[in-house]
Amino acid sequence: xxxxxxxxxKHLFILGITDSPLCRACMEADETPxxxxxxCRGVAEQRAAYLGSPASLPEALGDLGGLLxxxxxxx
Length: 75
Ligand SMILES: [Zn+2]
Prior knowledge:
Blueprint: H1 9-15, H2 33-39, H3 44-51, H4 57-62, H5 64-74
Helix pairs in contact: 3-5
The site of zinc ion has 6 residues, from loops.
Organism: Pararge aegeria aegeria
Protein name: Jg16502 protein
């Protein structure tokens, strides 16, 4: 499970803060940064608006302004 150390909601789930490790936007998979930034269909519209279509996590993270705007739409 070492590769799953940086999940967001999952971590909160472990801490007992949320009911589920699933992505809050689509409830289809664990809410990891990679999943939300690259694959989640629940935030596809916001992601396209702020980040375009990043092919990889480093690419998504490279646009810090877009990333922050995108993230602020989600929380
Ligand atoms: Zn999702």
